[in-house]
Structures are given as C-alpha cells and as structure tokens.
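Practice problem: predict the structure.
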Amino acid sequence: MRDRDHPTGPGRRSALLRFGGALGAVALGACGRGPESTAPGAEFALDELPPGGRRLLVVDGDPVEVTHTESGLVARSLVCTHFGCPLRWDAAKNQYVCPCHEGAFGADGRPVAGPPVRPLRVLPVRVEAGRVRVEPAPS
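Answer:
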C-alpha cells in the first residue's frame, strides 16, 4: 500500500514508520551493540564479525543486519516487507519477528508466519582490503 493510499493519509504513515524505525534502533541498541548510523552505505572491519556472528547497521536510514554464514556474508534489511515495521532477531525461535502483525521470517529471510509474503531484501556486500561495505539495496 502506498503512503497516499493509506487510510491515515499521506505523510502520517511515513512519520509513524520513521518513528518506529528509530524506536527499533534504540531497542536494538539496548540489546548489546546497537546499529551504527551511517548513510547511505555502511562499512566495518571484517575481523569485527566472526563466523556465526551478527552485526547491526543503519544503511540509507534503514536497520540492516549482516550475518557471517558458512557461505559468506549476507546483509538483510530489518524492515518487514508487509508493513515496514522494524524486525528483531529471536534466537530462541531462529527467526526475525515483526511486532506489528506477528509476521516472522526464517534465518534465510523467507516469510514463515503472518501476513508477509515477500522475503527480506538482501543488500549488496563487498569485502575489500579487510573492510566490509554494505550498500543500499537497488531500487
């Protein structure tokens, strides 16, 4: 649903989503190392993300998680594809969960519960000279 088609009218949904994203970023920060605010891309040292590790960033204004899997590095948007709410990782469930409409995504970013039907967006990741660079997702 586009912002202008939303029942609350244009602008209000965008403002609410930005507020929710900011609130989510604060909540992520309370859970340990919070997202680093950089825009439009984000960069960090590869040795700061061990295999099996997760790192939270802000890329182009959106929360993003970089995971170091057996097959390499993956950067996923932590914005629900259903309504744009900020997601959080639930280690006990091995899922990304959305507080807005009980949506859930598996560790691979595919929807597993609730209203979302599209997987989480994957962002481009480059590794050069021991540095990891996450770019905004292509439009």
